[in-house]
Structure formats: C-alpha cells, structure tokens
C-alpha cells in the first residue's frame, strides 16, 4: 500500500536517514522498531509530510507520490496518531474527532450528523469502553483517550494509520484493549504501522517488523519467525547472530542458491 525506497534526510550536517526502505501492506501490522535516535520519528514525519525527504521515492498503491505537507498525506488517507494524541481536554469526543474538519449544515454546525458518524466509527471498531461521545476528554482514562485518537484517525476513510507508542503509560487492561483495536484496524484492511519499544506488544500484534539502526533500515522480518531476544539484537546491533553474514529469518531471497 505504501512503499518508501532509498529515503535520505539530513538536518544540517547530521544525516538522520540513510537509504531507508520501508513498506506498509494492507491488512497487516508492520512494527517499526529501533533504539532512540535510530530515525523512527523522522521517518514517520516524512510519511506524514511534516519533513520533506532529501532524496528517495515514495509510492502509494503502486503510483509515485510526493509528500510536501501534512495535507498531502491526509489526501491519500495517511493518518498519524502521535504519542501526545493531540486531543483537547476541554472538548468532548465528537468535537475532538471533527476538530478542524467540522461538518456544517445550512446555518450552523451539523452536530447530530457528526455525533452519528462518531458513534458509527466507534461501533465499527467494536469500541465498548466509551459510554458517551459527549464526554469531555478530560474525564477519559488513558486507554479511552488512545481509543478516541485512533477512531479520529480512521474516521476520514484512512488507508494507512501510523501509531506512535500507543500503549505507553497504559495499564495492563488498557494495553490489551488498545492492542485489540490495532489488530481490528488491520483486519479491516488498513495498513497499520506500530512504533513501540515494548517488544511484547510488537510480538503480540504485528505481522512484520522493520528495524532501524543508526538511520538505516537493516532488516524486515516476519514476526512469527523471530524471538524477543532476536528483535532486541536487531535493535542494538543491526543484525541477528554472531556471524555478520548470517541470514535473518524471513529475509532470504527465494530461488537463491
């Protein structure tokens, strides 16, 4: 659904991304992992049109696209839920979900229409933890806030949803609810990108793992073919196994001798 090839990005003399390749598949959760400073945030901001790539190619559903601004990403159906969630505590759920994209009737805001769309979106995601869409966000738990932020992202016919540390600072039960929601997004056919430092979450919900190391995309592996310790090894060393030439599970070329 989304493919980045040979992406480079520098800030002054500091090169943050070096020839990065990254692919998002429909109906699949791709975990983007890497240590602090590996380039994850910069790559996501390139996907979201916040940072322009210095060089490289971006394809969406097989056709070349340019992402010069967030509106370019939004027009393609790419939505990003950042770690701070970007929700307004003094507004209710409906007002937050339509913030900046309010629907208008002939004379005023279409409040009934927006409320129905918000309810329909939450219902389509099988969200049962929110009792009223007219609750102020300030009164919601961390898990409920994350749910609202995700629902806001998928409200606009999204095709790709990027989630930045969605379970950070959540309890066990709330984490389980959010991970179940992430899985439902993929099951609905969306391409989901999960950024997380929690390897248990990555192993539980992702289908593929792309590892960044010192600004480079070092490996893309199938989650089912790696262990917790191997993922940590990818993050900390950029490879798996003691031998530098050892192939990583899921990356061998078919038909190779």
From TrEMBL:
Q: Which residues form the ABC transporter domain?
A: 2-239
Q: Which GO terms describe its molecular function?
A: ATP binding
Q: Which SMART domains match?
A: AAA
What UniProt keywords apply to this chain's record, in alphabetical order?
ATP-binding, Nucleotide-binding
PROSITE patterns xrefs: ABC_TRANSPORTER_2
> Which Pfam families does the protein's record reference?
ABC_tran
The answer to whether UniProt assigns keyword Membrane to this entry is no
Name of the protein described by the UniProt record: ATP-binding cassette domain-containing protein
- Top-down, what is the taxonomic lineage of the species of origin? Bacteria, Bacillati, Actinomycetota, Actinomycetes, Kitasatosporales
């Amino acid at each position: 659904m989304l493919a980045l090839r040979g992406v480079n990005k520098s800030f002054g003399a500091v090169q943050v991304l070096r020839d990065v390749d990254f692919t998002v598949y429909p109906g699949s959760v791709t975990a983007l992992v890497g240590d602090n400073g590996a380039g994850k945030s910069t790559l996501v901001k390139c996907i979201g049109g916040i940072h322009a790539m210095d060089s490289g190619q971006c394809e969406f559903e097989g056709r070349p696209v340019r992402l010069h601004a967030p509106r370019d990403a939004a027009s393609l159906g790419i939505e990003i839920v950042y770690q701070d969630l970007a929700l307004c505590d003094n507004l209710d759920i409906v007002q937050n979900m339509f913030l900046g994209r309010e629907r208008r009737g002939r004379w005023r805001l279409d409040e009934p229409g927006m409320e129905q769309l918000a309810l329909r979106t939450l219902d389509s995601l099988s969200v049962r933890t929110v009792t009223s869409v007219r609750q102020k966000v300030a009164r919601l738990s961390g898990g409920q806030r994350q749910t609202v932020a995700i629902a806001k992202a998928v409200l606009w016919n999204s095709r790709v949803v990027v989630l930045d540390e969605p379970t950070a600072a959540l309890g066990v039960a709330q984490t389980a609810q959010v991970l179940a929601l992430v899985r439902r997004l993929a099951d609905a056919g969306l391409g989901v990108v999960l950024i997380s430092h929690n390897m248990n979450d990555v192993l539980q919900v992702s289908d593929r793992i792309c590892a960044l190391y010192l600004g480079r995309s070092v490996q893309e592996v199938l989650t089912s073919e790696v262990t917790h310790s191997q993922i940590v090894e990818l993050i900390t060393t950029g490879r798996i196994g003691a031998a530098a030439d050892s192939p990583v599970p899921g990356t061998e070329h078919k038909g190779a001798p």
